[in-house]
Amino acid sequence: MSEMIPFPDKEAQLLASGTRKMLAQDYLSAKKDFEKLYNFAPSFENVQQLIEVYRLLGDFEIAVFYAQEYEAEYLSNPDFFEQYIHLLLLDKQYLWVHRLLKKRPNEKLQKDLIQLETTQEFIAEYDLQLKEQLFAQWGQQKQPIFGKKWESWLKGLSLSRFIYLTKKYLPTIENPFLLPKVVEELVSCGVKETLSFKTIDGRLQAVDLSKILPLPQAPQMVLFLELAAEAWENKDPQIAEGIAMEGQAHFSLLYPFLPEVSEIPRWIESYSLEYQSMFGNEKALESLKNYRNIQQTKQKLREIYQELM
Fold first, then answer.
1. Which helix (H) or strand (E) covers residue 306, if one does?
2. Closest Cα to residue 226, out of 249, 247, 196, 203?
3. What are the pLDDT digits (tens) for 132-147?
4. With contact defined as beta carbons under 8 Å apart, do 168 and 104 qualify?
5. Measured on CA atoms in the order 46, 47, 49, 53, is the torsion positive or negative?
6. Which domain of life is it from (predicted)?
7. Which of 37, 90, 167, 198 could form a disulfide with 60 if both were Cys (CB 3.0 to 4.6 A apart)?
8. Which long-range contacts (CB under 8 A, 24 or more apart) does 285-293 make?
9. Residue 34 · residue 53 · CB < 8 Å
């Protein structure tokens, strides 16, 4: 009786085929095999093959897209981390690299980053002028800048240029949605300067960025969400969710000028009283008079959002 000859499974076949084509520098054909491989068996091991072929083809944006799906794996190992940083640098995502190196300092990678940022300043002056013009336009539009548009604008921008634009335009901007986005980016990149920004009341106020946390980690935001849940989760989960959502929307516009931590319970009480008054509680409506300053601030924030409709 003849022996059965084992045939490699589909995953092994695609890996072998793609590897042969990579060695022959037939990267386009290899890409097709590795795309099939990853779709058939998505894993960190298989995505690395796909990322490498995209890198060799010069399609850094797609390579980064796949790599970011496995960022936790890249951050778990020093060699993988270095590969990930170099991939981001190829895609000119300098500010994202600053964010990562703030969490995981690496002197060699920091030097690579600074060198590339400096080179970019010299070779891409026209592109940087266009970015500045767009930033100035955003500052006057009173409209949110959504994810893809913001990420595209950040690409190719050095941290020093970003700080320069912040200092030049933020003190006079009219767009309330731009300041929080800029501040969170600066803080996440580890900037520790003291800069002046305009509050929603139009006052210029200095902010020590070394004392500011990203909004989700800010003690005011954390406490607000905790108290909202404590006050309403058991009584009425929908009200708890409504207060949490509106509070997050309001604080995202106030940032970095958030209320004092000691004031957060009063903010929760004011939202709670509003909900109670909506259901005909006249005593709650009367009690809101004790929260005049908070209500005035909330009214300004609501008007900003209403202008978008």
1. helix 292-306
2. 247
3. 999 999 999 999 999 8
4. no
5. positive
6. Bacteria
7. 90
8. 291/266
9. yes
Residue type at 283?
A: K
212: its two tokens: 């500011």
Residues sharing a CB contact under 8 Å with residue 257, sequence separation 6 or more, in sequence order = 197, 199, 200, 205, 207
Kind and range of the H or E element at 58? none
Cross-strand bridge partners of residue 198: 204
Q: Return the structure tokens found at 217.
A: 């980690």
Please give the Cα distance from 46 to 300 (Å, whole number): 51
- DSSP 8-state assignment for residue 257: S
* Mean pLDDT of the residues in the chain: 94
The CA distance from 140 to 137, in Å, is: 6
From 192, 184, 194, 257, select the one nearest 220 (Cα to Cα).
257
CA separation for the pair 97, 120 (Å, rounded): 15
Closest CA to 92 of 31, 138, 147, 153: 153
Q: Distance between CA 194 and CA 231 in Å, rounded?
A: 37
Structure tokens at 170: 């933020």
Q: What is the pLDDT of residues 153-205, one digit of tens each?
A: 999 999 999 999 999 999 999 999 999 999 999 999 999 999 999 999 999 99
The pair of three-digit structure tokens given for residue 224, joined into one six-digit string = 């607000």
- Nearest alpha carbon to residue 188 among 169, 215, 168, 164: 215
Residue written as token pair 């981390």 = 81
Q: Mention every residue, 6+ apart, whose C-beta is less than 8 A from residue 71.
A: 84
The candidate with the shortest Cα–Cα distance to 211, out of 164, 166, 257, is 257
> What are the b/e assignments for 109-132, b being 16+ CB within 10 Å?
beebbeebbeebeeebeeebeebb
